[in-house]
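W.,

You were right to be curious about this one. When I first looked at the sequence I had no strong expectations either way, so I just let the prediction run and decided to look at it fresh. Below is the sequence, 310 residues in total, followed by the output.
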Amino acid sequence: MKFISSCLERPKRPFTMILGGRKVNDKLDVIKYLLGLADAVLIGGGMAYTFLLAQGYNVGKSVKDLSKLDDIKEYLEMAKKYNTKIFLPRDVVVCDELDYPTKIETVPVTEIRDNHVGVDIGFDTIDVDSYFVGSENTENEFNASTYRLINSLQVYDTVHFSQYPVAFAGRAADNLVECVSSSTELPSGKCQFPFWLGGDLKNPEGIEIDFEGNVTLCPCLCIGNAVNHPLTELIDDYDFSEHPLIRVLAEQGPSGLLPLAKAKGYKDNRRFINECHLCYEMRKFLRNYHPDELAPANCYYLYKSSQGEA
């Protein structure tokens, strides 16, 4: 965590932040904070259309927040002053309507028409998160499906392959467990800490922060909320041994969570693909007992509704 503190005070260059999502208003304070700190801010998702509109582009029927146009124009000018480059999509995927589209196409942002609804960034570059895609005949059925999809796009020359293996983790494993063979033995290995963060649970080199302020290590494994406590304080005070779940994961691995879940009434005798799948299932069950440490709720399918959590 000392590494993160040094990054905030003396960022390693180039320092780039990627922002997306539908809403603009909950990201503007983040962007303002990054001006002068980040070398570049990449903006995608639905919020990009309000930025494009502020720069004079037609965005048609795309989602936009007209109340934030003046703020965005001000931040774009401030970005020039502080030498922070703000990048917006150069092309976008548009359709004629969201519910029942009859035409979907990719167009440059300069060619968005009045009847267009923007739904995604374009295909200037496609990144495939797979160590080895191979051919359509590869033994890995998911890599084979990825290869067929890429081939169908007919843009193979613009595809870049991230050098990391495909893995079952979290909700992906939860949904796919019935589609693949798995051992009846309980996965007993250690936690595979996210490669993009570096370090491990005892000494992490990175953190993630969501739009609600949840500061997490492994996704949805929360060490505090930056809205309620200063981020530097959360980082400096981090001690894995004081976190009721991280302590178990760091010392015993995901299998250590099973006795905790059983003590709370967990009785499901299901199969687990790997350690990540086991960890996710145990955390999903324990979430009601540790809401602050296992946040945000939507990672565990616990969405707020008029009837409460679902």
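Here's what jumped out at me. Confidence is low (pLDDT under 50) at residues 125-134, 302-310. And, maybe more interesting for your project: The chain has two domains: 1-124, 168-310.

Coffee later to discuss?

I.
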